[in-house]
Specification:
The chain is of the alpha+beta class and about 525 residues long. The chain has helices spanning about 5-15, 25, 35-40, 55-70, 85, 120-130, 145-150, 160-165, 205-210, 265-275, 290-295, 300-310, 310-315, 330-345, 355-370, 390-410, 445-465, 480-490, 495-505; strands at about 20, 50, 75, 95, 105, 110-115, 135, 170-175, 180-185, 220-230, 240, 245-250, 255-260, 280-285, 320-325, 350, 380-390, 425, 430-440. Helix content is about 35%, strand content about 20%. The longest helix is centred in the C-terminal third of the chain and has 21 residues, at about 390-410. The chain is globular.
Length: about 525
């Protein structure tokens, strides 16, 4: 399948010949994302019809109008971190937003920044920290797009306890709809600036991203304002070391605590109390192996560290939580520390000692989210199963059910690795948390790929059967299948309304929606 010459020339007229390509060697660079083999039975997804690189909203609008004229499906992406950015079974026009990488404004007084599509979380962080602010960051790492996580694809991470969930981060939004019209949400649409994403009248943010985002299935977000949170660190961080275990000097007004708990109940109570008292900069629970991942540079180094660890260490780390506190003054830090001691006493927590060589990498991960990408060191690929946002009680039960009823068989057979009894989770608000269970697998082993496919498919069915929420669709094999299995029977006619939204906003069905919904 290829573009007609007339369509290609129309696109070329918009962006210039140097910013569009259909050369096979170029297009093949857009065919590979981790987990393709689990999603599409091949390490490479369908080759794009072409790749086009716009530099303005006017060019994006022109591209979308050409796609409507010639009935060409398109999908835009920023950093290209995961399958929803690039992958599909069928070819489409890939809109690469990398030329739109400008930080338009940083409003320090009102605590928001305006960014274009390709601005990474780390790029924005490096600029906002100079004025004592920081953006919301998520677990995919510093190269992930801040606009994508805020407007288009989930958006949770270690710092959600202090900087909120991605769905509550966007303010004013500039949006090229699938039919080529430009929509400006909130105060931006009335010429009043970027400070609010709602009104006048009904909010459209729920349609734009809802809980999980349309992942490119409802047009192209070109600019957005995102909330900023106070940063009590220095205007620049001091890094040392070598790839890929950089060390960062921890500022004096930050403190990291790793606590071990006798069981799952106390661990969960600890998280609830820490969130209630609002003392966390970052807060999360992850498998104990994650600490070893952060401090080793290869799979071999990791295996040596784990193999050399006494069994009693692994048992002690079975229920651990990682907390980082920040404060604007020594007095505030002392107050937070005193509160933490009371919470630890109440939940029977024990301090888990970490050596100096561990503290810097842990701090780096908590600030940047870089640790997520280190999972690739252990096997060659991973996906997340049993993903949801639910109450603390549901999160508490989920890890046990997943380990016993989903993972045990495959782990015993050596087909998956590093799952552990507890999933990763982090608080998103006063009463609920994000949770996901990492399934690491060997993308070169057909049996390992088959195992992860079976696990993810079964998770979509079991979560609602366990009454522990519906599948979150993040990491599932098919958004349509996950919705049909879970959302349709358990959430009124959610799927039906979602299909109506798709039809209304995309009458010609040109905004490629493999990871959204197909009407």
């Amino acid at each position: 399948m290829s573009l007609s010459r007339e369509a290609y020339r129309a696109l070329e007229d918009i962006v210039g010949p140097e910013n569009i390509s259909e050369e096979p060697a170029i297009l093949d660079g857009y065919c590979f994302v981790w987990a393709n083999e689990a999603m599409f039975d091949d390490r490479f997804s369908a080759r794009p019809l072409a790749v086009v690189l716009p530099e303005s909203i006017e060019q994006v609008q022109g591209i979308v109008r050409v796609c409507n004229r010639f009935n060409i499906q398109f999908r835009a992406h920023s950093s290209g971190w995961s399958c929803p950015a690039l992958s599909s079974k069928e070819s489409f026009l890939s809109i690469d937003m990398r030329r739109m990488d400008r930080i338009v404004a940083i409003d320090a007084k009102n605590k928001y920044a305006v960014v274009e599509s390709y601005v990474s979380m780390q790029k924005l962080f490096l600029q906002t920290m100079k004025v004592g602010l920081r953006p919301h960051t998520i677990g995919c790492g510093p190269s992930g797009g801040i606009l994508a996580s805020a407007t288009s694809n989930f958006g949770c991470g270690n710092t959600s306890a202090s900087s909120d969930f991605g769905g509550r981060v966007p303010l004013g939004v500039e949006w090229v709809l699938p039919d080529g019209e430009i929509l400006r949400l909130g105060t931006l649409g009335t010429g009043s600036g970027w400070f609010s994403g709602d009104g006048p009248g009904p909010s459209l943010r729920g349609i734009m991203r809802g809980y999980g985002g349309a992942t490119g299935g409802l047009g192209v977000i070109t600019r957005a304002a995102v909330k900023l949170t106070p940063w009590y660190g220095p205007p620049a961080l001091k890094a040392s070391g070598k790839p890929n275990i950089y060390d960062i000097e921890i500022p004096e007004n930050f403190q990291i605590n790793v606590a071990a708990f006798p069981d799952r109940d106390q661990l969960t109570d600890f998280f609830v109390l820490v969130v209630e008292e609002a003392i966390a900069f970052a807060l999360h629970r992850s498998p104990a192996a994650s600490l070893a991942i952060l401090s080793t540079s290869s799979g071999d180094d990791f295996w040596q560290m784990v193999s050399a660890s006494p069994p009693e260490v692994a048992e002690a780390m079975k229920f651990i939580g990682v907390l980082m506190m920040d404060a604007g003054s020594p007095r505030e830090m002392q107050y937070r520390y005193d509160l933490l001691q009371k919470i630890m006493e109440r939940t029977e927590a024990m301090n888990f000692p970490m050596g100096p060589d561990m503290m810097g990498p842990v701090f780096r991960n908590l600030v940047t989210g870089q640790g997520q990408q280190r999972v690739f060191n252990i096997t060659t690929g991973f996906l997340t199963a049993a993903v949801n946002e639910e109450s603390w009680d549901s999160v508490k039960l989920l890890g046990q059910r997943v380990a016993e009823e989903l993972y045990a068989k495959y782990e015993a057979e050596g087909k998956i690795a590093i799952t552990g009894e507890n999933p990763w989770f982090a608080p998103l608000g006063d009463s609920f948390a994000h949770t996901e269970s990492v399934v690491s697998y060997d993308q070169f082993d057909p049996e390992s790929i088959k195992a992860v496919r079976e696990i993810l498919a079964e998770a979509d069915i079991k979560l609602p059967q366990w009454h522990l929420a519906v599948g979150g669709a993040e990491g599932c094999l098919s958004f349509d299948e996950a919705s049909e299995k879970a959302a349709a029977p358990y959430c009124l006619d959610f799927l039906g309304y979602e299909k109506k939204i798709k039809k209304a906003f995309d009458p010609n069905l040109v905004s490629e929606s493999s990871f959204y919904v197909k009407p």
